[in-house]
Amino acid sequence: MAEREEYEGLLDEDEEDEGVSRHLSPLCDPTHLLHRILVLFFMCFLGFGSYFCYDNPAALQTQVIQDMSLNTASFMQLYAWYSWPNVVLCFLGGFLLDRVFGIRLGTIIFASFVLIGQIIFAAGALANHFWLMNLGRFVFGIGGESLAVAQNTYAVNWFKGKELNLVFGLQLSMARVGSTVNMNVIGWVYSRIEAMLGSVGHTTLGITLMIAASTCLFSLTCALILGFLDRRAEKILHKEQGKTGEVIKLTDVKDFPFSLWLIFIICVAYYVAIFPFIGLGQVFFIEKFAFTTVQARAINRAVCFLMGVLCVCVCVCVYIISAPASPLLGFMVDRTGRNVLWVMLAVATTLLSHMMLAFTFWNPWIAMCLLGLSYSLLACALWPMVAFVVPEHQLGTAYGFMQSIQNLGLALMSMAAGSILDLKGYLFLEVFFIACLCCDIVNVFIITFDQFKASSIYSIYNFFLKKYIK
């Protein structure tokens, strides 16, 4: 009887929610598609400022090195200091959102860290203090990765099922658009300020970076609006704040299988050959291929845009899976189910692109487009492999540990890449990237052999079980 009354109470509550929604216009109704599209707009631009400012150093590599009197190793510290806090925060970000701040306040706090970090970064350039610029990147890093966690949490809270694939794709697309716009605009802003001031120096750099901070202010505004809309929806629909769903237990690390550690190594070694290269790529194209600064920026931003477009295709593929002619990478991976094979293909084509850049004078557009395609293929094949080798209750820990190791590797290898470039030049740097990718290929072969061995032992066991045990 009590259960029946409780059930009827829930029905009455649902009918009450529907009644409330029925009296609202579509744009104001939290359950209506138009309102959720409005929320999606602010959700997508939540990380725009973070991605725009993350690659400010790459777009202004020559200017930063000249104006601040740096060598390449010191320049790459700007990327290393971004990664250091995320060695730990990959574990804590979801916990802080769930248990401490809540999704709304947490998102505003992390967006504020991004804005404050960029302002400190710009102030360091204005004051000609490189240590202050590094401090700014550290503060920026505290907010950057955790803001991405908050963005994904909002997506899960507002969209369900197949809609999530499209939403994640659009979010990732806007992230890459932020990087692309940065590569295209920030150099022009620098030159305009230089023309206005009539001189080149750290003041010009500082003003340019301070203008870039306006994109972070825009993202903070999106966080505030999202918080208002989410709180309003919570009151109307009587729902709880979104949770990340992550269960982080460091004690699970001791139970990780050998194949998962190989996946971690593949992840680190692969991303080391991508992001530090993009950070240093502009001068490489100018020195080796005699590109102009405009052309060098163009090829860097084109690759960032290609990564974004292809990753969107990967995420959208499930949403439009009924279209049999969709030439989407994620569709191929899902249909074949052979993630290890696609990871091998992605690593091999990335290795080929780096060899082309290192040992030939072919048009670098070929190699860089291949690099963008390979990156997108690896992204949709490698990360799901974690779910294949660990139980569901360990997924949060496994992904947190994977992101932490990735950030640790990027922090260390970014500094190493800068030192190699200063001491030996771009050819040796490319050889370093090639060595990392060769390490990846070896580890993929080990995973393949490990899977084959396990499946063979299982097949033999199953054969004798059926034949001799009734």
List keywords for this structure.
single chain; 470 residues; mainly alpha; Growth Hormone, Chain: A; 2 domains; 20 helices; 0% strand; globular; MFS; membrane; transmembrane transporter activity; transmembrane helix
Cα Rg = 24 Å
What is the terminal separation in angstroms?
A: 49 Å
Count of individual domains: 2
Give the helix proportion (percent range): over 70%
Regarding CATH, which class of the largest domain? Mainly Alpha
Instruction: Determine the CATH topology of the largest domain.
Output: Growth Hormone, Chain: A
The CATH architecture of the largest domain comes to: Up-down Bundle
Beta-strand content estimate: under 5%
Write out the CATH superfamily name of the largest domain.
MFS general substrate transporter like domains
Tell me, rounded to a whole number, the average pLDDT. 77
pLDDT under 50 segments (min length 5)?
A: 1-19, 312-337
H-E order = HHHHHHHHHHHHHHHHHHHH
Q: Work out the oligomeric state of the chains in this entry.
A: single chain
What about the largest sheet?
Answer: none
Question: Could you tell me the number of beta strands?
Answer: 0
Individual helix count: 20
Q: What coarse outline follows from CA principal-axis ratios?
A: globular
Structural class: mainly alpha
Organism: Sinocyclocheilus anshuiensis
Keywords: Lysosome, Membrane, Transmembrane, Transmembrane helix, Transport
Domain Major facilitator superfamily (MFS) profile: 33-454
Pfam families: MFS_1 (PF07690)
Summarize the structure.
The chain is mainly α and 470 residues long.
